[in-house]
Each structure stands twice: as C-alpha cells, then as structure tokens.
C-alpha cells in the first residue's frame, strides 16, 4: 500500500512547489512592475520640473523639510508642492517624496 502512495505524494509535492514558484514569480513581477512605474513617473516629473523656476526656488525649503523629517515647511516649498500636484494630479507621492525629488533636480 505504501508503494502506491509514494508516486502520489511525490506528484503532490511537485505541484505544490510549482504553485509556490508561480506565486512567487507573479508577486515579484507585480512588485517590480510597480517600482518601475514609480521610477518612470518620478523621472518624468523631474525632467518636466527641472526648468520650473517656482520649483527650483523651493530647493532650500525642501532641504529643510527633508532634514527635519517633515517638521519645517517653508512658503516656497508649499507653493511648489501645490504647483507639482496641479501639473501631475495622478502622482500619488507624499510631501516628503516630492521634496526629495525637488532636491534631486
């Protein structure tokens, strides 16, 4: 009787291993795809704002904001954040992420 169960157990383990690998691959593809979309959106944002005087004027405020972990907010940064969100309404970035993007310009 045990001799007949061994092939079924082996087949079950193989199927379970394949399902786990497929699930891991699908999850990894989804996470990496999301990161790629975020990087693309950020690079599109930075390239379009690189010549924007309002955003460039906010660099000092953005540096203070990032250094204080979001505690110190300047008027130039507030204006730039409003401007960026008006230009890119689909962008779901936080204020801290946008301030870091301003510093990267």
UniProtKB/TrEMBL annotation:
InterPro entries: CHP02448. It comes from the Bacteria. This is DUF2388 domain-containing protein. It comes from Stutzerimonas degradans.
